Amino acid sequence: MLELEGLTAGYHGGTVLHGVDLTVPPGTVHAVVGHNGAGKSTLVHSVAGLLRPTAGSVRLDGTEVAGRAAHRIARAGVGLVPQGRRVFAGLTVEEHLRLSYRAPSGGAGSVPSWTPARVLELLPRLAERRGHRGADLSGGEQQMLALARALLSTPRVLLLDEPTEGLAPVLVRQIHELIGALAGDGIAVLLVSPSPSLAASCADEISVLTSGRITTRLSGSSAREDPAPLHEALSLSRTGT
Ligand SMILES: Nc1ncnc2c1ncn2[C@@H]1O[C@H](COP(=O)(O)OP(=O)(O)OP(=O)(O)O)[C@@H](O)[C@H]1O
């Protein structure tokens, strides 16, 4: 379970995130949607420890982790798939997986542990490309690899920063399905994206982020039934209201 309370963060003395509250129970997907510059990556980075929050709380299964170093937060069970994928051009798929794999230390709780073999079973396209270098992978394959790397730490919480950016519709659908499968496995997924359709298709709960504040909350099921309120909230969010 991931719980954010009053999370506040920014850069160079300025505030970008203003007291964000949200909860992501295990086995659910919470999507935060917002326009460019709303603070989505800042939110993800503050949870992952890449940016130190200036106030508020980040609790992982009840344990406060706000302000801890990124590697400690990762070890506590938070996996990050960063925006832009950040795969190494010169390393093969297999080398990426080998470097990212950490044999379980027994602290993974009820979540089954991920191994390179299990990850390749989930992502057959990566299995076919296991000998290819990062530079030779398509955008979608790089996204799968970024996801595979995050899974190999057997996260209880998975942070996905714009996972479908720049992908063709068929790959976007695959990513939806994967997100659903990972939540089905018990992982708490926090997804940030500018795409209301991605949020509506796979989230249990949706928050609209406007200039660093959550301005609207909707259930995923209501957004699937009628996407109009989500679109309206986003369009109001563009004007910062
Ligand atoms: N390293 C940084 N130093 C200073 N300001 C930053 C830094 N990173 C982001 N910002 C500023 O913080 C604000 C929020 O940026 P952030 O990247 O979190 O938005 P976003 O919602 O993820 O946008 P996008 O959809 O374009 O990725 C923006 O005004 C941005 O210019």
UniProtKB/TrEMBL annotation:
Annotated segments matching region Disordered: 218-241
Record keywords: Amino-acid transport, ATP-binding, Nucleotide-binding, Transport
MF term (GO), any: branched-chain amino acid transmembrane transporter activity
SUPFAM superfamilies: P-loop containing nucleoside triphosphate hydrolases
Annotated GO biological process: L-amino acid transport
Gene3D superfamilies attached to this UniProt entry: P-loop containing nucleotide triphosphate hydrolases
Superkingdom classification of source: Bacteria
Pfam name, any one: ABC_tran
CDD domains attached to this UniProt entry: ABC_TM1139_LivF_branched (cd03224)
Residues spanning the membrane: none
Domain (ABC transporter) ranges: 2-236
SMART domains: AAA
This protein's record includes keyword Cytoplasm: no
Keyword Nucleotide-binding assigned: yes
Family membership noted in the UniProt record: Belongs to the ABC transporter superfamily.
Name by which UniProt lists this protein: ABC transporter ATP-binding protein
Annotated organism of origin: Streptomyces triticagri
